[in-house]
Design goal:
Strand content: 15-25%
Shape: globular
CATH architecture of one domain: 3-Layer(aba) Sandwich
Helix content: 25-40%
Radius of gyration: 28 Å
Bound molecules: alpha-D-glucopyranose
Mean pLDDT: 95
Largest sheet: 6 strands, mixed
Strand order of the largest sheet: 11-16-15-14-12-13
């Protein structure tokens, strides 16, 4: 026995030393050359563990954006077990972490720093759903540009944005992060945000790497409940949910984040069809794919793998290059390679993609180039950035109602400012507000004061989500002193965003009752709505004299709202998500199908509710102005055209009101007969134009057969001969039609 024990020990020591050598010696396999000698040279030196370290992303303990936090991430850096960090920013912190990586590790590979810079880094812009309502692609790009400049000056290389998930269900809290329900608009906005983030290119010290998320179809959870199952046909997916990811990739985004949900029964994090067939083979994406927070681990809960190790093998074989926070690759991937369950070539491919971006950033030449105190000082919260935030915020606001032209207010009117959001600062930056701070915000009260519209009385009236009405008396007293009431109501910022789905999307608590009480005074009431999603507000619509949708409009919110209330800026925003009358209508969206029994008020046997209208309270594309616009009948350069030809749709637009204003002219098509059912409306073009009062402009839109293409019955994308109705107007309800035929 003793002898056996001794020889076993010898064998064990031999094995142990061989294993240790293997870990310290570069891996044996000859890496496949990629054309960049720097990458190949470095890769050849790396041990398997060091390669896996590059595929590992951890959060610091500065912030928590998910269910787990690891301490010891600095030791992970030192041991070469972590190649990227998120929730780590500011010059001092990133310099310290980078120093550990480039001074205390064997190969001195610089770290990548990522962060959720979704609608601003420190100067916070409106939530993306608000920005989308501006329909101003230049403004949206500018917002991302400024966010990138501030973030890159603070040591960040990479933002986990744009979020391009199509959202048709306002119960889902993350609609605040996206561009709304429409695919065409979602694509254009995705492109603008990628351009803004990446600027003149990765490596510039005012640019950050964009990360398209959440790939894919995360915005369609059943029941609007975050993280829930997604289930849709391939046609529906490719027609409505997939295009914005493709648009962002084709705009140059160099990273993609896999989503938590399953697609066609397979979690996106392990879905080869999404990550390889579509992303790599169809789109030729060259960047790297990162999971969402512990997305690999969660495949065990999805029930497609028995344990984390198997989850890691499924993820890497599907095409996941980097493991966010799950520590699955770090714990099990080396073993999986040794067991032959994962090929070294797969590891090398992932590491090449990651190193390629670190080289492109210039981090090997200067690991500290992004952590620059002077640049940070010069750009963060600069007057120019604040002015831009105020401008984008104004443009994002949507005037939903303005009975008897109660708006704009004039400076002689005595204003009572009432409501739980009248003086808020922290809520104004909304959710996913990066390094933003409420302390930097301008409240609505301050904005009115700055505009020379100091209220004669201010009262909270009630809380956001309490039924307590004890504050009503003070509110009524305030209203009694005024000519007009400005009532600031809505949600709390944390009632939308991740893990914040709502089954009742009302203005919560006693806020509606407060409106009713104030309305009874006979004073006109202007509702300023602050929220992160469409809300069901039929009672508010009935009672308020005016309603201004301001979303969460960021650091300069108060000034921007005052600009609109005072008429200094004529509101021009248009909704990019339908506002249901009631939750029971959800999902309700403009580009619906006709169905075989389209609604007919004169027939029982048609698609309808017996207790509610079909139509939303406010439609996609809707928004009022302080002026009015008139559209002429659209005309077509030719009423019949062939594949390969284009047609020009022209329409006269007149500002028939008394003030200058911007209008978003929207062009929709309706394919009357297709090999599959087609939506009754599809947005295919838009123009935001300024018209002086009384001015008329002729707008032209050039369309090609690509604009009439869709996934036909054979699932091939293309157009079919047939008749189309083209409508041009100020929202999706317009019936200003010209008919054309594609031969
Ligand atoms: C979160 C979000 C994702 C974010 C990531 C890092 O869970 O789903 O959008 O980028 O974690 O914070």
């Amino acid at each position: 026995m003793q002898h056996l024990l001794k020889s076993t020990t010898v064998v064990f020591c031999l094995l142990l030393s061989m294993t240790l050598q293997a870990q310290t010696k570069p891996a044996k396999t000859k890496p496949k050359p990629t054309g960049d000698p720097r990458i190949e040279k470095l890769l050849a030196k790396m041990t398997l563990e060091e390669k896996i370290g590059q595929m590992t992303l951890y959060t610091t303990d500065w912030e928590s954006t998910g269910p787990t936090i690891r301490d010891g991430y600095k030791n992970d850096i030192r041991s070469g077990n972590c190649g990227a960090l998120f929730n780590s920013h500011t010059v001092p912190f990133t310099r310290e972490l980078q120093r550990i990586a480039v001074e205390e590790t064997r190969l001195k590979i610089p770290l990548l720093f990522g962060y959720d810079v979704i609608h601003g880094y420190k100067t916070i812009f409106p939530i993306p759903l608000g920005e989308a309502a501006s329909w101003d692609l230049d403004a949206i790009e500018r917002s991302a540009r400024i966010a990138a400049t501030e973030a890159a000056a603070s040591g960040l290389h990479w933002t986990f944005a744009p979020m391009v998930d199509i959202g048709r269900d306002p119960r889902w809290g993350r609609v605040m992060e996206g561009a709304g329900e429409d695919t065409y608009l979602g694509c254009r906005i995705a492109e603008a945000r990628v351009r803004g983030f990446q600027g003149k290119g990765i490596g510039n010290t005012d640019a950050v790497i964009a990360c398209v998320k959440h790939y894919a179809a995360y915005g369609a959870p059943i029941g609007g409940r975050d993280y829930n199952t997604v289930d849709m046909s391939e046609r529906f997916f490719r027609e409505y949910y997939l295009p914005p990811y493709k648009a962002a990739v084709q705009a140059g985004a160099m990273t993609v984040m896999a989503s938590f949900n399953d697609y066609d029964g397979v979690p996106a994090t392990g879905n080869k069809y999404l990550l390889q067939h579509i992303l790599r083979d169809e789109w030729a994406f060259k960047g790297f794919v990162v999971t969402d927070y512990t997305g690999i681990n969660e495949m065990v809960k999805h029930g497609v793998v028995p344990d984390d190790k198997a989850a890691g093998e499924l993820a890497v074989q599907a095409g996941i290059d980097m493991d966010m926070q799950g520590a699955v690759y770090q714990r099990f991937l080396a073993q999986s390679v040794k067991e032959g369950k994962v090929k070294m070539a797969q590891i090398d491919e992932a590491v090449r993609r990651i190193l390629a971006l670190k080289f492109q950033l210039g981090l090997f030449e200067d690991p500290y180039k992004f952590s620059n105190a002077q640049r940070a000082q010069a750009t963060i919260l600069s007057p120019e950035n604040r002015a831009a935030a105020r401008d984008v915020a104004r443009k994002s606001m949507v005037l939903l109602k303005n009975a008897n032209q109660v708006l704009p207010l004039n400076k002689q009117q005595k204003i009572a400012l009432i409501g739980p959001l009248a003086e808020t600062k922290n809520d104004l930056i909304g959710n996913w507000s990066g390094a933003g701070s409420g302390a930097d915000c301008v409240s609505l009260l301050e904005g009115l004061q700055n505009a020379g519209m100091k209220p004669v009385a201010v009262a909270k009236g009630c809380a956001i989500d309490s039924e307590d009405q004890s504050g009503f008396k003070a509110a009524l007293d305030a209203a009694a002193q005024a000519d007009v009431v400005v009532l600031a109501i809505g949600e709390r910022a944390d009632m939308s965003g991740e893990a914040a789905s709502r089954a009742y999307i009302t203005v919560p608590g006693a806020q509606e009752a407060l409106l009713t009480a104030l309305k009874a005074t006979g004073k006109p009431v202007v509702v300023v709505l602050m929220n992160g999603r469409p809300l069901t507000i039929p009672n508010i619509d009935r009672q308020a004299d005016a309603i201004l949708e301001t979303w969460w409009s960021g650091t300069e919110a108060g000034n921007a709202i005052a600009d609109v209330l005072s008429g200094a800026y004529n509101p021009s925003g248009k909704l990019t998500m339908s506002f249901p009358r009631t939750t029971g209508q959800i999902p309700v969206y403009y580009n619906h199908k006709s169905a075989g029994r389209p609604f007919d008020p004169n027939s029982k046997w048609t698609t309808k509710y017996i207790d509610e209208a079909n139509a939303p309270l406010y439609a996609f594309g809707y928004g009022l102005s302080y002026t009015s616009f008139k559209y002429g009948v659209p005309t077509a350069s030719k009423t019949a055209f062939k594949k390969g030809e284009s047609i020009v749709i022209s329409v006269e637009l007149t500002n028939t009101g008394n003030v200058d204003g911007e209008e978003v002219a929207q062009l929709y098509i309706h394919d009357l007969v297709g090999s599959v059912t087609r939506p009754v409306r599809e947005l295919k073009a838009f123009q935001k134009v300024m018209l002086r009062k009384g001015e008329t402009k002729t707008l032209t839109f050039t369309l090609s057969d690509k604009d009439f293409s869709f996934f036909k019955q054979n699932m091939k994308f293309g157009s079919e001969p047939g008749d189309f109705e083209i409508t041009v107007g100020g929202n999706s309800d317009t019936d200003n039609v010209v008919r054309v035929s594609l031969k």
